[in-house]
């Protein structure tokens, strides 16, 4: 049995690769068609990719946030690449010589369309993992959010998206939280299934010891993964960190989760310029604060912290899912813009504290420290909004037992 996994973004690739790993454990053969970038997540997971139809684009996949990024991608050959990718999916889906096969679309309407279109003309069945949308973007369990307009068609999934998902050839719709599954089933008669959130898989700590004392605070900083935006975000977050160290009356350990593609020395020099003393290549100190630059142990950073300072997408959601409160501040993009930050705050609810400038960190901290129930509320909210781990294995098992006969 062969499965073609189509995804459109680095975060989506990671989720898709995890599912592919679990499918291979069950005896399936998986091949990947990453629509954005070159599929590093698949390569890392040893999942074969259709290399001749992959290409890195200037936007890094964030065209939704900035039309100028889309223009740059088009100039770099996006239209021709998309046509070739669709052609491959079309031919693969209709190639009956491959025997029993399935397309697994992971992401938003783009991979969903890539799976749906050939299925209408003699292609194979497909399943959809909807990673990009949640009903929490515009409502909570009780009602709509007062500051958010009700989506066209009454759901975060637009009518045309629901039409694609309603196809007879769509054998499963996997969503990221229970509320979204309930609404799609109840209001639109779509058989959406909630089996956990794959975004929460793979975050198990390695047991790293950061030297954090019992009465000391740990604050994880997430500047994002994309250069040069992450460097600009880092400068803003460093100002936030200085406010934290002045506000919290304890020793504070800042755990800075640095993406592998970022240059540690660039970040290190910016820390020294702000007056921190360099202890070693990745450790810095000033007054009651210690700062560590970490390119490994991401799960440990999330598990061991009390609080997050973040200007990131998926990593912020994962931190919230582990029950941690997060302070976010909008940047200049292309990813972490004001609009993106506001939408993220709506999605993640009380776990997110969105501010306009670093000085406001002190006000947020004082409110948090004076509310004895806040951390417990954030823990409950994180699981509700982000779901539980284990979805990758659950989705693979569902495909094996309910879709493939």
From TrEMBL:
InterPro entries: Lipid-A-disac_synthase-rel_put. NCBIfam families: lipid-A-disaccharide synthase-related protein. This is Lipid-A-disaccharide synthase. It comes from Pseudanabaena biceps PCC 7429. The lineage of its organism: Bacteria, Bacillati, Cyanobacteriota, Cyanophyceae, Pseudanabaenales.
């Amino acid at each position: 049995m062969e499965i073609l996994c189509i995804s459109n973004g680095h975060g989506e690739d990671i989720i898709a690769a995890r599912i592919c790993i679990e499918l291979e454990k069950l005896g399936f053969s998986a091949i990947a068609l990453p629509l954005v970038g070159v599929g590093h997540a698949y390569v890392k997971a040893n999942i074969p990719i259709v290399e001749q139809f992959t290409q890195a684009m200037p936007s890094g996949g964030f065209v939704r946030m900035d039309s100028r990024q889309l223009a740059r991608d088009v100039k770099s050959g996006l239209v021709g690449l998309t046509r070739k990718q669709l052609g491959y999916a079309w031919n693969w889906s209709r190639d009956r010589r491959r025997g029993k096969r399935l397309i697994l679309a992971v992401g938003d309407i783009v991979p969903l369309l890539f799976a749906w279109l050939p299925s209408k003309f003699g292609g194979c069945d497909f399943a959809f993992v909807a990673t990009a949308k949640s009903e929490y973007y515009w409502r909570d369990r009780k009602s709509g959010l007062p500051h958010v307009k009700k989506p066209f068609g009454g759901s975060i999934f637009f009518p045309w998206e629901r039409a694609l998902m309603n196809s007879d050839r769509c054998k499963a719709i996997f969503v990221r939280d229970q509320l979204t599954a309930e609404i799609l089933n109840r209001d639109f008669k779509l058989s959406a299934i909630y089996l956990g959130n794959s975004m929460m898989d793979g975050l198990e700590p390695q047991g790293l010891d950061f030297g954090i004392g019992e009465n000391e605070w740990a604050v994880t900083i997430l500047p994002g993964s994309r250069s040069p935006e992450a460097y600009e975000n880092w400068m803003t977050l460093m100002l936030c960190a200085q406010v934290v160290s002045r506000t919290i009356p304890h020793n504070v350990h800042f755990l800075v989760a640095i993406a592998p593609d970022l240059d540690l020395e660039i970040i290190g020099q910016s820390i020294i310029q702000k007056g921190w003393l360099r202890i070693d290549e990745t450790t810095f100190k000033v007054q009651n604060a210690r700062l560590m630059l970490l390119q490994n142990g991401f799960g440990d950073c999330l598990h061991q912290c009390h609080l997050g300072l973040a200007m990131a997408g998926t990593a912020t959601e994962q931190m919230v899912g582990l029950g941690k409160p997060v302070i976010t501040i909008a940047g200049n993009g292309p990813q972490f813009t004001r609009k993106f930050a506001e939408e993220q705050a709506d999605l993640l609810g009380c776990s997110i504290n969105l501010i306009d400038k670093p000085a406001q960190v002190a006000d947020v901290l004082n409110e948090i420290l004076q509310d004895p129930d806040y951390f417990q509320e954030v823990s409950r909210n994180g699981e509700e909004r982000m779901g539980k781990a284990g979805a990758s294995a659950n989705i693979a098992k569902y495909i094996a037992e309910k879709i493939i006969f």
